[in-house]
Design goal:
Elements: E1 2-4, H1 38-42, H2 52-56, E2 59-61
Parallel strand pairs: 1-2
Amino acid sequence: MTVQARPAHPERICWGCARRCPAGDLACGEDKARAPHPVELFGDDWNENISGTQASSLRVEDVQ
């Protein structure tokens, strides 16, 4: 899965799956609430603190 390192408005998108649904229209049906982006949970340096299996299954794009 590819995740942007620092999206401009992470609160506008559900980050729970690859579909990236708008926060107000969760079309995938996997979640009842929007899944937050890691930057919202862990801060701007979130991608520097991942390791092991988390890092091997995640591609981080530094798109601004």
